[in-house]
């Protein structure tokens, strides 16, 4: 795998010894997927990931291992897919998000999401950020909240003089930061990011990564990424998922979950070791 030396170089800069785990924080999200189906297809099994407050948790693994499915399970985005069936729990501060009394729309008020492709709405920059606020009948100063959100997404200085311009007029990296501003405008506690940099160039990618590190001071973040270097750079915790093909299907499952330094330097499972070294096709 051509990126392996670069990952090694990044890890050399990490000062935390392998044998010294990071201090434990409050678990905000406890995601336990026993079995997750789309119709008769078992997409994910045996995956348990606790997400701690004010950390970045990364899901890594090969294509088709269920990373995005697991992430979307957290704020019930999979509910929108026909045939979806879930066995397990997602506890958010002790409340099961899959309890029948819980409104999935309300779940997304507290657990926001940024998608793989920047998806600004066909409206002004201002209205893109204000959209969720209006939807949730925000009672405060709308203009002040939009500015606060754009500042939080490190975009205010670039757009403050063109708030009436279309969000689609921005560059790809700016559009993704606009989507982040839209996601944090309603002040969720948790922010999910599904391959947020896959459509961006290296410069824009680095800016979004820097932003993620800034945002974790206020938000709890979980990301899906195929980019091992990105996981090594930004994540505090990392879960490696793989694919079970023993019964002729393709069911994703969690192989191991640990501090990012431990996952990359001294993984426990041979599957993780092989993946980090690039020995899987």
Automatic annotation (TrEMBL):
Domain of life: Bacteria
InterPro entries found in the cross-reference section: AAA+_ATPase, ABC_transporter-like_ATP-bd, ABC_transporter-like_CS, P-loop_NTPase, PstB-like
Signal peptide (from-to): none
Keywords, alphabetical: ATP-binding, Nucleotide-binding, Phosphate transport, Transport
Molecular function via GO: ATP binding; ATP hydrolysis activity; phosphate transmembrane transporter activity
GO process terms (BP): phosphate ion transmembrane transport
UniProt keyword annotation of DNA-binding present: no
Keyword presence, Cytoplasm: no
GO cellular component, one term: membrane
Residue ranges of domain ABC transporter in the record: 28-276
SMART domains: AAA
Protein name: Phosphate ABC transporter ATP-binding protein
Originating organism: Humisphaera borealis
Upper lineage: Bacteria, Pseudomonadati, Planctomycetota, Phycisphaerae, Tepidisphaerales
């Amino acid at each position: 795998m051509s990126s392996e030396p670069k990952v090694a170089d990044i890890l050399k800069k990490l000062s935390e010894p392998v044998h010294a785990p990071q201090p434990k924080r409050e678990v905000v999200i406890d995601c336990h997927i026993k079995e997750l189906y789309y119709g008769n297809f078992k997409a994910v099994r045996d995956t348990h990931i606790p997400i701690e407050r004010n950390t970045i948790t990364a899901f890594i693994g090969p294509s088709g291992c269920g990373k995005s499915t697991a992430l979307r399970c957290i704020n019930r985005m999979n509910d929108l897919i026909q045939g979806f069936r879930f066995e397990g729990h997602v506890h958010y501060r002790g409340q099961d998000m899959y309890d029948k009394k819980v409104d999935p729309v309300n779940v997304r008020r507290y657990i926001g999401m940024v998608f793989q492709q920047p998806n600004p709405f066909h409206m002004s920059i201002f209205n893109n950020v204000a959209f969720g606020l209006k939807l949730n009948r925000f009672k405060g100063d709308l203009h002040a909240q939009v500015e606060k959100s754009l500042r939080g997404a490190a975009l205010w200085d670039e757009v403050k003089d063109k708030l009436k311009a279309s969000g689609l007029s921005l560059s790809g990296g700016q559009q993704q930061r606009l989507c982040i501003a839209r996601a944090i405008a309603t002040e969720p506690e948790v922010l999910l990011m599904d391959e947020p940099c896959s459509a961006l160039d290296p410069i824009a990618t680095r800016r979004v990564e820097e932003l993620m590190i800034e945002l974790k001071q206020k938000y709890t973040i979980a990301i899906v990424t195929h980019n091992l270097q990105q996981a090594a750079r930004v994540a505090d915790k990392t879960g490696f998922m793989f694919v079970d093909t023993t019964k002729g299907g393709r069911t994703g499952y969690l192989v191991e979950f640990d501090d990012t330094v431990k996952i990359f330097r001294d993984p426990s499972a041979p599957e993780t070791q092989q993946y980090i070294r690039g020995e899987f096709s």
